[in-house]
């Protein structure tokens, strides 16, 4: 056993020096104090980083196919009544949704932005007691002949224009969501409604009511999918009031699929986007073009992933050891340089070579 202990003592890389041979200096004490404070400061800095989460970012190729996307929006039109506004959506696959009413809430607002009435879209149309007939008369209660479809259309148009007249001077806040295919497409807000069963657009008839429409608007919120912490959507709070407000407001949006995983493992599938704005005055474009706010979106082939995670405990211990060992090593080099420099200067002064 003595031989084993002797061999272990020979492996000691830290030989001890008797305290009687220690030489303590003022410079060494100052360096020790400064290095200890530096170690303490860096230790708490590393400990704070260990307690906080860090976000790892990766770029991947988006291979998802056949999925749908929910678009959330909140837009205010201060000069167009709710009855006049409709929402249409279409994509490059050929799928179209005209005059969308599901999951849409419209709020009538006055000139000061106060809400007058809030209701789901498609509710509140006036009831037609006596529909028009093809001969121009009205259907009495005891009559069973409905007449042509043109009479029903004419009655719908009259009711539509009557509501516009009643709400003239009001604005509209419209918010809700759309579920669309995950392919390039567009959706837009425009004055007028589409009559699906006759393929006639009511916006063709609006010229009889007004010459132009103030399509100025404010985008209170626009998101593709769920929100995740730290995301800043460039169109949130965007306000666009053009000198010539009767035109086509166009937003060209590049959507970047994003997956966010928090420290608890909860995953949020969302999207970030960039946007370019453009305005077309109706006086200088095709006469059949209609005013409105158009959002054209396309998807990036690259997907971004954000993952929150803690620094591992082993990484924390490694950093602490590096801090302590590094500072002590540097402090020892500085102390040795000062100590030996002072000794050489002292010897030269003793023999008179240094004055």
From TrEMBL:
<dbReference type="GO" id="GO:0005783">
    <property type="term" value="C:endoplasmic reticulum"/>
</dbReference>
<protein>
    <submittedName>
        <fullName>Endoplasmic reticulum-Golgi intermediate compartment protein 3-like isoform X4</fullName>
    </submittedName>
</protein>
<dbReference type="InterPro" id="IPR012936">
    <property type="entry name" value="Erv_C"/>
</dbReference>
<keyword id="KW-0472">Membrane</keyword>
<feature type="transmembrane region" description="Helical">
    <location>
        <begin position="21"/>
        <end position="44"/>
    </location>
</feature>
<dbReference type="GO" id="GO:0030134">
    <property type="term" value="C:COPII-coated ER to Golgi transport vesicle"/>
</dbReference>
<dbReference type="Pfam" id="PF07970">
    <property type="entry name" value="COPIIcoated_ERV"/>
</dbReference>
<keyword id="KW-1133">Transmembrane helix</keyword>
<feature type="domain" description="Endoplasmic reticulum vesicle transporter C-terminal">
    <location>
        <begin position="151"/>
        <end position="335"/>
    </location>
</feature>
<keyword id="KW-0812">Transmembrane</keyword>
<dbReference type="InterPro" id="IPR039542">
    <property type="entry name" value="Erv_N"/>
</dbReference>
<dbReference type="Pfam" id="PF13850">
    <property type="entry name" value="ERGIC_N"/>
</dbReference>
<feature type="transmembrane region" description="Helical">
    <location>
        <begin position="313"/>
        <end position="339"/>
    </location>
</feature>
<dbReference type="InterPro" id="IPR045888">
    <property type="entry name" value="Erv"/>
</dbReference>
<feature type="domain" description="Endoplasmic reticulum vesicle transporter N-terminal">
    <location>
        <begin position="8"/>
        <end position="97"/>
    </location>
</feature>
<dbReference type="GO" id="GO:0016020">
    <property type="term" value="C:membrane"/>
</dbReference>
């Amino acid at each position: 056993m003595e031989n084993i202990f002797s061999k272990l003592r020979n492996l000691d890389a830290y030989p001890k020096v008797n305290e009687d041979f220690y030489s303590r200096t003022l410079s060494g004490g100052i360096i020790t104090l400064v290095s200890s404070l530096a170690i303490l400061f860096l230790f708490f800095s590393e400990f704070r980083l260990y307690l906080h989460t860090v976000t790892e970012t990766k770029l991947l190729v988006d291979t998802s196919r056949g999925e749908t996307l929910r678009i959330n929006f909140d837009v205010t039109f201060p000069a167009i009544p709710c009855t006049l506004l409709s929402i249409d959506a279409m994509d490059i696959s050929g799928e179209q949704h005209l005059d969308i009413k599901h999951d849409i809430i419209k709020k009538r607002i006055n000139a000061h932005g106060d809400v007058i009435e809030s209701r789901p879209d498609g509710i509140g149309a006036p009831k037609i007691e006596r529909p028009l007939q093809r001969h121009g008369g009205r259907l009495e209660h005891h009559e069973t002949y409905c007449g042509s479809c043109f009479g029903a259309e004419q009655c719908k148009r009259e009711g539509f224009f009557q509501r516009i007249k009643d709400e003239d001077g009001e604005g509209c806040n419209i918010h809700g969501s759309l579920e669309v295919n995950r392919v390039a497409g567009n959706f837009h807000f425009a004055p007028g409604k589409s009559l699906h069963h006759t393929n006639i657009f009511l916006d063709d008839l609006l010229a009889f009511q007004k010459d132009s429409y103030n399509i100025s608007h404010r985008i209170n919120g626009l998101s593709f999918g769920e929100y995740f912490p730290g995301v800043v959507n460039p169109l949130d709070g965007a306000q666009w009031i053009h000198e010539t407000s009767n035109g086509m407001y166009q937003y060209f949006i590049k959507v970047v699929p994003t997956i966010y995983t928090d420290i608890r493992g909860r995953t949020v599938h969302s999207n970030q986007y960039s946007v370019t704005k453009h305005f077309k005055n109706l006086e200088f474009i095709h006469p059949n073009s209609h005013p409105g706010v158009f959002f054209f979106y396309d998807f990036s082939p690259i997907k971004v992933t954000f993952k929150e995670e803690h620094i591992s405990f082993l990484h924390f211990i490694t950093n602490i050891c590096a801090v302590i060992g590094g500072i002590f090593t540097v402090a020892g080099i500085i102390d040795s340089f000062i100590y030996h420099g002072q000794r050489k200067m002292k010897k030269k002064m003793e023999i008179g070579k240094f004055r």
